Predict the 3D structure of the following.
Amino acid sequence: MRLAALRAVEKEATGLERTQLLERLLQDGSGIIVMDAGRIMGYGFRRNFGRGELIGPVAASSEVQAKGLIASLISTAKEFVRIDIEGAQTGPVPWLEGQGLADWGPVTRMVRGRVSPCSWIMKQFAVASQAFG
């Protein structure tokens, strides 16, 4: 998979240019990418973090697709799992609780500088972490 394609979809979902973050996730984490007709339609990453593993970022074109990505990442986790859902994303929270994850409250997405408009097609469902957004 080409980094350029993933960068473009990440910017579409978040409005941010995060090449360094994506390079780090590709190097240190594991991920899943959903493709349709050669186009990335969703992605999710999991990496070691704190006392276990963190899932995020997760972006997809639908909540159903995001849940599939998250479920797959949870099913292959070996330790404690954390996922940070932005405060506005309340839909997935009951489903995540059904997957065995406790709700410790929403996170606030913070950015420095200008953010490009986000796409109506791709949407971020989980942030990379509270520190990365």
Q: What stands out?
A: The first helix runs from residue 3 to 14.
